[in-house]
Amino acid sequence: MLSRYTSFQHLLQVYDNISARYAFKAEYLSQYRLWKKKLRVKLADITGLNQMTFSELKPEVLETEKMDDYKRIKMIIQTEPAVLMPFYILLPDDLQEGEERAAVIAPHGHDSGGKYAVAGRSDIPGVNRVIEKYNYDYGIQLVKKGYIVFCPDARGFGERREIIKQGDEGEDILSSSCHELNNLAIALGQSLTGMFVWDLMRLLDYAETCQYVDSTRIAVCGFSGGGLQALWLAVMDQRVKAAIVAGYFHGFKDTIFQSNMCSCNFVPQLWRYCDMGDLGAMIAPRPLMIKSGSKDKLNGNSGLANVYSQLEIVRSAYKLMNAEGNLYHHVFNGGHIWNGDRVDEFLKSAFS
């Protein structure tokens, strides 16, 4: 039998020696504001967000379909030169002409077919299975509560898969090319996370032009990898008035370092500067809901204890901002699935 000589324990020690240089430690509001400004600049740098190229959106309607109690519009916008993002807009049937409604941007995670699962495309083979498995159609759940919902494809997913992972037969549509894209991005001084956030910021730009969207009431809501996108968008864009991060809130060391190693999670040098709780702390005082399954293996080896350790960092920031009532942690009895309990209640409170 071959011996195994790994570097893992050494890298864990390296993590302890260099991590969280910009950890949240503020005791006064002035310190908090300075810390947030400084960390946001650093995050824009290491994600490559400040390298993205602005372009005209050039929105185009591709198709419109009337569903049972909502309308589904497929559109495409240009987020960078020659970089196109398709997305669905879900409009409630009771939306009146001239009315402005609260809107939710609903990014997806893995094993979703991109926007298809969130937008409830159970007619697509393979997508129907993951909708049932993960309760993945939260875009449909939200539009049925009266919200306007934007369901985009992230780069590397759905209709935006790169050549190496294209194909729509069987389960192929559920695959992604996030690994290949992040490798390319890192070699260019960028990151897939930066691309995700930039594209969602451009979608926000478009949403603000829609006559039926109340631009003062736009939230972001995502599960799993969609939770990653929701968290980062709320951190980097103050236009997001409320955020729901589901199935994606835990310490980096106990989870991403040791088990959840998908490329989507990796930003160059991120762990040198902050942990996930520090990212959450940057959202204060805006309403933030974190949803955790009690049996979700992606919480890490220590389970909910890993979540609570990061939540305390966030709670300290909200307490400093005298906004503890804007932070909600919903723990439900279940695994890695979307749980919609209390979401409508949270959004109504956030937008009131």
UniProtKB/TrEMBL annotation:
<dbReference type="InterPro" id="IPR029058">
    <property type="entry name" value="AB_hydrolase_fold"/>
</dbReference>
<dbReference type="InterPro" id="IPR025890">
    <property type="entry name" value="Abhydrolase_bac"/>
</dbReference>
<dbReference type="Pfam" id="PF12715">
    <property type="entry name" value="Abhydrolase_7"/>
</dbReference>
<dbReference type="InterPro" id="IPR050261">
    <property type="entry name" value="FrsA_esterase"/>
</dbReference>
<protein>
    <recommendedName>
        <fullName>Abhydrolase family protein</fullName>
    </recommendedName>
</protein>
